[in-house]
Write a structure and sequence with these properties.
Spore Coat Polysaccharide Biosynthesis Protein SpsA, Chain A; 27 helices; Serine Threonine Protein Phosphatase 5, Tetratricopeptide repeat; eight-stranded mixed β-sheet; 3 domains; 709 residues; single chain; alpha/beta
Length: 709
C-alpha cells in the first residue's frame, strides 16, 4: 500500500507490550510516525525506534492535551492521524480513500473507535464511539482539556466542517483486569478533579467525573456532579442526553423510580431512539407495577436497538442481550395475563455499547430530515415560486400567516403546507418562533416568500445536511440579493446567514429581534457550531419598485428603533439600524449607529462590514481621508475582502493620489478573480468588473499625462 501524506501521532508510556502492534498497523500508510514518550521505564522507546518511529520525550504534566499537542508540533505531513499505543488501525485503505477524496472545506474526519470493556469484572462489552482522529495539519488545530481532550472545537472555530468516515480503530485500553481497571479509574479521577477545580461549572468534566465515581461506587459524589452537569449542560446533541441518562440510572439505583422515568423521558425528547432511556423507563415502570407501561417501554427498547441512528451510537447505546430483553417482554405479557413477574436483573449489569461502527446519514424513521419554516402575508404572487424551489427537498412546510387578505393560505395549502394563523405584533422573531413551535424536522430551513433555493442548491441540500457531524448546529447560506438603487440601477449584495439549523426544540432554539431577527445566539447557546455551506438562496425582496422599497425601509426603521430602545446594548440591532439609516440617506445618523455598534462590540465579519460602511458614508460626504482610514480598519479585520478596498480606491482617486488609486484598483481586479465562495465579511457587493477596468484605463492615461507634464 502506498505511503500517504500522513503523520501518525502517538503518545505512550510503558507500552512495550503493544507499541509494536500499534505502529505496524499504521506503517503501511504513514509517511511519518511520531511517538511522544511521557516517561517510560520499560522498552517502549527502543521498540518504537526499531519500528521506524521518530521518538522524543515529553515531560508528563498531568495534561493529555499538552502531550498530544507536543506530538502534533512534530508532524511534517499535510494530514495527521492520532492513535494511542493500545490501539490498532483496522482499515488503512479507508484512510487512503478519505484523504484522496476529502473536500477542501473539510478539516477532519470522524473515526470509529471500538473498545472492549470489562469494567467492574462484567462480561466483555463492545463500545463504539465516533471521534475526530484524522485532520489537517494546521497550527490552529490543537487539543483542549487535560483529560478527555478534544480537538473538534478548534477545527470548527477555524471555519472547517467535519465528516464521518469508514475508518475503524480498535482500542484495548479498557480490556483490563479489575485491579488495573481500578488504577486507571483512579488516575482519571485525579485528573478530572484537577479539571473540575479549574472549571467548576464545566458540564463536560462533571459528567465524566460522575461516570468514574459511579464505576468506583462513589454514588453520592456522582450525584453531586450530575446535578451540576444538568444545571450547566447545553444540548449539543450529545452531552445533555448522556447526563440525563446517567441521572436516570443513578435514580434507579436508589429506587427513585418516578425520577428515573422523568430523566429518561427528558433525554428522549432531545434524542429519540435511545435504548438506554427506554430500558430504564421499562425497568422503573416494572418496579412500580405498571406492567402495561413497562411492556411498551421494552418494545420501544427493542425497536431502538434495531434503529441505525448514528447520533445514538455517538452517545453510546445500552448493551442488552437480545435473549434477556425478550424475557423481559415475555414477563410483562404474562404479568398482564395475571401471572406474577420474576425479579429484575440489577441495573449495574448493563453497560454502554455499540455492536457495529457508526453509520452516518441515518435518522429516526418517524422524524423528517428537513422542515421549511415560513412567515407569510399577502404573498399569493411570490409564494408559488418559493415553494416550487423546495419541492422534493423538504418533508414538512410550516407557514405562519400574519393576516393575509388574498389567496396566500390557499396557495400554501396547495403545496401541502401546514398553515397556522398568528396575530401580527410588530415582531418578526415572535412570528418566526411560532413556526418553530410546529417544526418536526431534524433540520430547519427558513425562507421568505420572496426567496428561492437555487436549483443547484436544491439538488445537494439533503446530502449536505446528512454529512454534518452532531457538533454542527447551523449552516451559513449565501444570500444573493439584488438591491434597486434610486437611479434605477441594480446593485447585487451577497451575505452569509445561518438559514439552516438543527431543530434543538423550541424554545431552546428561537429567534431574537423585532426585525433582522437572529437565530445565531440560540444555536451557539445550544452548543452548536456554525460553518459555511455551498447552499445559495436568491432574495428578490429589495429589487422592487421604489415606493414599495421605501415603505419596507420605513417599516424596518420603525421596528429597529423599537429594538434598540428595548435592548440599547444590542450591537447587531445598532448595526442593522445603521444599514437602514444609510439606505434612507440619513448619513450622520447612520454613522452614529455604526459607531455605537462598534463600541458595544461586533463579531469580526460584522466589524469589517460596519467599518466598510463607515468608509462608504464618509466618501459619500466628501470626507475622503476619513473614508480611507475606515477602509483600512476594515481591511485589517478581513484583509482579502473587495468592498472596503473598492471604497479606499475611490477615495484615493478623489484625493488625486493617482498612483495609489491605480495600485488599489489593480489589486481589486485581482481579488475579483480569486474571490472565494465563502464570505469572510457580513456582506459583499458584487462589483462591476468592466467599470473597474475603465477606471484603471483612465488612471493609466492620467498617470502618463502627469509624467509628460
Amino acid at each position: 500500500m502506498e505511503r500517504l501524506p500522513l503523520s501518525v501521532c502517538i503518545i505512550a508510556r510503558n507500552e512495550q507490550q503493544r507499541i509494536e502492534q500499534c505502529i505496524a498497523s499504521v506503517a503501511p500508510v504513514a509517511a511519518q510516525i511520531v511517538v511522544a514518550d511521557t516517561g517510560s521505564t520499560d522498552a517502549t522507546i527502543e521498540r518504537a525506534i526499531q519500528c521506524g518511529a521518530e521518538v522524543f520525550s515529553v515531560e508528563w504534566k498531568d495534561d493529555f492535551a499538552a502531550a498530544r499537542n507536543a506530538s502534533l508540533a512534530r508532524a511534517n505531513q499535510p494530514w495527521i492521524l492520532v492513535v494511542d499505543a493500545d490501539e490498532r488501525l483496522i482499515t488503512p485503505g479507508a484512510v487512503a480513500a478519505a484523504i484522496r477524496n476529502v473536500p477542501a472545506d473539510v478539516g477532519g474526519l470522524l473515526v470509529a473507535v471500538r473498545s472492549i470493556s470489562t469494567a467492574g469484572g462484567a462480561p466483555p462489552t463492545l463500545y463504539a464511539t465516533q471521534v475526530l482522529r484524522l485532520f489537517r495539519n494546521n497550527e490552529c488545530f490543537r487539543y483542549e482539556g487535560i483529560i478527555h481532550e478534544q480537538i473538534l472545537p478548534a477545527v470548527l472555530r477555524a471555519g472547517y466542517r467535519c465528516l464521518p468516515s469508514s475508518i475503524v480503530v480498535e482500542h484495548e485500553g479498557y480490556n483490563l483486569d479489575p485491579q488495573s481497571m481500578q488504577q486507571k479509574h483512579r488516575r482519571n479521577l485525579r485528573l478530572l478533579d484537577q479539571a473540575v477545580e479549574r472549571q467548576p461549572e464545566s458540564a463536560f468534566y462533571r459528567f465524566h467525573r460522575a461516570k468514574i465515581a459511579m464505576a468506583l461506587g462513589m454514588l453520592e459524589r456522582a450525584e453531586d456532579d450530575l446535578r451540576v452537569a444538568l444545571q450547566h449542560a447545553r444540548n449539543d446533541g450529545i452531552l445533555l442526553p448522556q447526563v440525563l441518562n446517567h441521572a436516570a440510572l443513578l435514580a434507579a439505583v436508589h429506587q427513585r423510580w418516578r425520577q428515573s422515568i422523568a430523566y429518561a423521558q427528558q433525554s428522549l425528547t432531545l434524542l429519540p431512539q435511545q435504548p438506554m432511556s427506554w430500558f430504564l423507563i421499562g425497568e422503573s415502570f416494572r418496579a412500580l407495577g405498571d406492567y402495561w407501561a413497562a411492556l411498551n417501554a421494552y418494545r420501544h427498547t427493542e425497536e431502538a436497538l434495531k434503529a441505525d441512528d448514528y447520533r445514538v451510537r455517538i452517545v453510546g447505546t445500552l448493551h442488552i442481550p437480545h435473549q434477556e430483553l425478550q424475557e423481559r417482554i415475555a414477563q410483562m405479557e404474562r404479568a398482564l395475563q395475571g401471572q406474577a413477574p420474576t425479579s429484575s436483573i440489577p441495573f449495574a449489569h448493563y453497560h454502554y455499547s455499540a455492536s457495529e461502527p457508526m453509520k452516518a446519514n441515518a435518522k429516526s424513521p418517524d422524524r423528517p430530515l428537513l422542515t421549511l419554516a415560513m412567515i407569510v402575508r399577502n404573498e399569493e404572487e411570490m409564494l408559488p415560486r418559493c415553494l416550487e424551489s423546495v419541492r422534493g427537498v423538504v418533508e414538512q412546510i410550516v407557514a405562519v400567516d400574519t393576516g393575509s387578505s388574498d389567496a396566500t393560505i390557499t396557495v400554501a395549502e396547495r403545496y401541502g403546507a401546514e398553515v397556522y394563523r398568528f396575530e401580527w405584533c410588530d415582531d418578526f422573531a415572535a412570528a418566526r418562533n411560532e413556526a418553530l413551535r410546529h417544526a418536526r424536522g431534524e433540520w430547519i430551513l427558513y425562507l421568505d416568500a420572496d426567496e428561492t433555493l437555487t436549483p443547484e442548491s436544491a439538488s445537494i441540500l439533503r446530502n449536505v445536511l446528512q454529512q454534518q457531524p452532531l457538533q454542527v448546529g447551523g449552516l451559513l447560506c449565501t444570500i444573493v440579493s439584488p438591491h434597486r438603487q434610486d437611479s434605477g440601477s441594480v446593485e447585487t449584495h451577497r451575505g452569509a446567514y445561518p438559514r439552516l439549523f438543527r431543530n434543538y426544540g423550541y424554545p431552546r432554539i428561537a429567534f431574537r429581534g423585532r426585525v433582522h431577527e437572529q437565530i445565531t445566539p440560540a444555536i451557539i447557546e445550544c452548543g452548536g457550531g456554525i460553518v459555511h455551506s455551498p447552499i445559495v438562496i436568491y432574495h428578490s425582496g429589495y429589487n422592487i419598485p421604489r415606493e414599495h422599497l421605501e415603505a419596507k425601509v420605513r417599516r424596518n426603521y420603525r421596528l429597529l428603533i423599537q429594538h434598540v430602545q428595548e435592548e440599547p446594548l444590542n450591537a447587531y440591532a445598532w448595526f442593522q439600524l445603521g444599514q437602514t439609516l444609510a439606505r434612507m440617506r440619513l448619513f450622520a445618523e447612520a454613522e452614529g449607529a455604526f459607531e455605537l455598534a462598534l463600541q458595544i462590540g461586533l463579531s469580526p465579519p460584522l466589524r469589517a462590514s460596519a467599518t466598510a460602511a463607515m468608509s462608504y458614508l464618509c466618501g459619500a460626504q466628501g470626507r475622503y481621508a476619513e473614508a480611507i482610514d475606515w477602509a483600512e480598519q476594515s481591511l485589517r479585520v478581513v484583509p482579502d475582502q473587495a468592498i472596503a478596498l473598492a471604497y479606499k480606491a475611490h477615495a484615493l482617486e478623489a484625493l488625486g493620489d493617482i498612483e495609489r488609486a491605480h495600485a488599489a484598483f489593480t489589486e481589486l481586479l485581482s481579488r475579483l478573480d480569486r474571490q472565494p465562495e465563502q464570505l469572510a465579511v457580513g456582506f459583499e457587493i458584487e462589483l462591476d468588473r468592466a467599470a473597474i477596468e475603465r477606471k484603471l484605463q483612465a488612471l493609466s492615461v492620467a498617470t502618463v499625462s502627469t509624467m509628460n507634464a
